[in-house]
Design brief:
The chain has about 325 residues and is α/β, with parallel strands linked by helices. The protein contains 11 helices and 12 strands. It binds guanosine-5'-monophosphate (5GP) and manganese (II) ion.
């Protein structure tokens, strides 16, 4: 089925529903929370009962400026008739046990497992919010300032501030439309990028000290241990973009962050020009995009062992598609 048909089917289902849950992936980013919150005013206007759910607690504070951020809850209502998931590649990343009565899955991950009853997956979209935007436009739904602020923030965060390969004329046209709807780009930029935490900078200093180059400078690893987090007072959110800075090293094609978590080692992979890191993440039970992917290697806490495994995968990925 083509996307336009799916947009129509989704809105037919939404019209029929009374009690709707909007859900996004655990450890949400700007796109996950932004996309789900963007639908809140729209569905309220349609007279629906709406719950915005995310299983993660606490939520990332840097997104607290998103309109209706304070509505996000980690409690599911007892009864609801429709769930819509945003930016979530697989059912297990929703952080819920029971299957919903009906699920619309809206996403742009190439690795999406199509776990919904309706699956609106557009891997060409720069953000899930762009899929939501296209869906609303197609159905003639008005996007107000609050929805637009959420959609725009999702677009900014998922394109690395309009820097990635995913950025094309459609992305800028959407951004322009969001500004017309009332979004203030300077406000969003200040909220996202001018409220840094000292603990994060202290953590960066320690993390950068661990950078290890490999593959003739084409790959780099960076490590974050629990001890580093404790000493600096950093929180998980503070680790979010460290791997991007390591990718920014001139010679680097693939950057990899390893973080010691309770369950094991969390890996975050980024590539710059051509390498497909989503394949590497999928090998370890994770997923993501060609240029940004991640996984958690559960029960494994040995950084050197994981790095050695990953070096082999990275070497292979560097040879392909170049
Ligand atoms: P990050 O490295 O920032 O955690 O994630 C980069 C991308 O990979 C995001 O699009 C994220 O949704 C995806 N991703 C990260 N970790 C996992 C994981 O464990 N499983 C899956 N399926 N995707 C992941
Ligand atoms: Mn996304």
């Amino acid at each position: 089925m083509n996307l336009n048909n799916l947009y129509e089917k989704a809105f037919e289902k939404i019209k029929e529903a009374n009690n709707i849950v909007l859900i996004s992936h655990i450890n949400p980013d700007g796109d996950a929370l932004g996309s789900s919150l963007s639908m809140y005013p729209i569905l309220k206007r349609m007279g629906k009962k709406v719950t915005v759910f995310n299983a993660t607690k606490p939520l990332p504070l840097y997104l607290d400026f998103l309109p209706n951020f304070n509505k996000v809850t980690d409690k599911l209502p007892k009864d609801y008739d429709l769930m819509i998931s945003f930016d979530c590649g697989s059912f297990d990343r929703l952080g819920i046990e029971e299957k919903p009565p009906f699920l619309i899955n809206i996403d742009h991950h190439i690795s999406n497992t199509e776990y919904g009853d309706i699956n609106i997956i557009d891997p060409k979209a720069a953000s899930t919010s762009q899929v939501v935007y296209n869906c609303c436009k197609h159905n003639g739904i008005e996007i107000d300032k609050d929805s637009a602020t959420c959609m725009y923030t999702a677009l900014v965060t998922d394109t690395g501030s309009f820097q990635y390969d995913s950025v094309d004329d459609k992305v800028f046209l959407m951004a322009a439309d969001m500004v017309k709807a009332g979004v203030e780009p300077a406000f969003v930029a200040k909220m996202l990028f001018q409220r840094d935490r000292l603990s994060r900078l202290r953590l960066l200093a320690k993390a950068y000290d661990t950078i290890e180059m490999c593959c003739d400078g084409e790959a780099a690893f960076v490590e974050i241990t629990k001890e580093m987090m404790e000493i600096t007072g950093a929180i998980k959110d503070d680790t979010d973009t460290i791997v991007n800075s390591v990718r920014a090293i001139a010679t680097v094609e693939i950057a990899c962050m390893l973080r010691e978590d309770d369950e094991g080692i969390k890996i975050s992979l980024r590539s710059k020009n051509y390498a497909d890191v989503s394949k590497i993440a999928q090998k370890y039970g994770g997923g993501g995009h060609i240029r940004a992917a991640g996984a958690t290697i559960k029960g494994e806490f040995d950084f050197e062992k994981v790095k050695n495994m990953l070096k082999e995968d990275i070497k292979k990925a560097l040879k392909e598609n170049r």
